[in-house]
Amino acid sequence: MKRITIAALTAFTLAFPALADEIGEVSTVFKLLGANHKIIIEAFDDPKVKGVSCFLSRAKTGGIRGSLGLAEDTSDASIACRQVGPISYTGELEAGENVFQQRTSILFKKLQVVRFYDPERNVLVYLTYSDKVIEGSPKNSISAVAVAPWGAEGLLPEPPEYDE
Asked: Would you list the domain boundaries of the chain?
């Protein structure tokens, strides 16, 4: 029984993208009732690429509807990803693989981060965008991380297995 539960929990955890840690926030519009409109800064680690962290800034709608979780956040977001340690891969990378998502409305709208690998330049590229069931947004932001040596040895990791 325990093996099934642990296996199911592991499969459930691996099926979903990374979770973010909130780093900070700033208010952009004062609201008399409910929370202020804000810009939130969050960080998450790529679940399949050890040594890479991404930092997102995104709009968060306040007011009464925002405080109750009923408001739809705007599609404004920015991303910066950096190598923060030696890079290693925990699985095969897929083109356009979803590495993070955050709900931005009560229904149907999500902020997503997907990863691509450019083998010619040995670079990981992260794209953030917002999508909706009917109509997404063309607003987007990208960040690239050069796969570079880390530490005193200065050794490059093996190239990832990549499914185009």
From this structure: 17-149
